[in-house]
């Protein structure tokens, strides 16, 4: 143990320890210089605003900015944006990123997704309206016909054509309900013979 302590105070050990420290510092300095040059430290690209651009326009802008892109998904249709345009991007516009960074895009689909018309025949107008609203359809108008069930739905129309429960319509479609007015239809009145 005494020899080891003497070795730790020897000139040879102190010189090698000093060389090891200098070599370590030089190595750390070189690694940081290499990282600065390969990672473009301090060099940033500002992400442009791609909203409302078509996919083709977005591709050109991404390439011109020295970035990469990936279309993640299409969202629910948004009528405020053109069809097949960018409605969302990550990172957002104005963010400073490294060149060659990947930008993720969400694209506006071509239209509303289709929803299934619920079973509303022989249901009251009030319940039918609630059921339609729940799936994303709107009642544009209610027309009454001579039928015994007052405010009972007998037919459904979309753009003047009869539709049935189970048919598919674009979300937010405006439909017409044909309901009974509580009167007995003339064809159902049976006249008795008086003798």
Automatic annotation (TrEMBL):
<protein>
    <submittedName>
        <fullName>PASTA domain-containing protein</fullName>
    </submittedName>
</protein>
<keyword id="KW-0472">Membrane</keyword>
<dbReference type="InterPro" id="IPR005543">
    <property type="entry name" value="PASTA_dom"/>
</dbReference>
<feature type="domain" description="PASTA">
    <location>
        <begin position="42"/>
        <end position="109"/>
    </location>
</feature>
<keyword id="KW-0812">Transmembrane</keyword>
<keyword id="KW-1133">Transmembrane helix</keyword>
<dbReference type="Pfam" id="PF03793">
    <property type="entry name" value="PASTA"/>
</dbReference>
<feature type="transmembrane region" description="Helical">
    <location>
        <begin position="12"/>
        <end position="35"/>
    </location>
</feature>
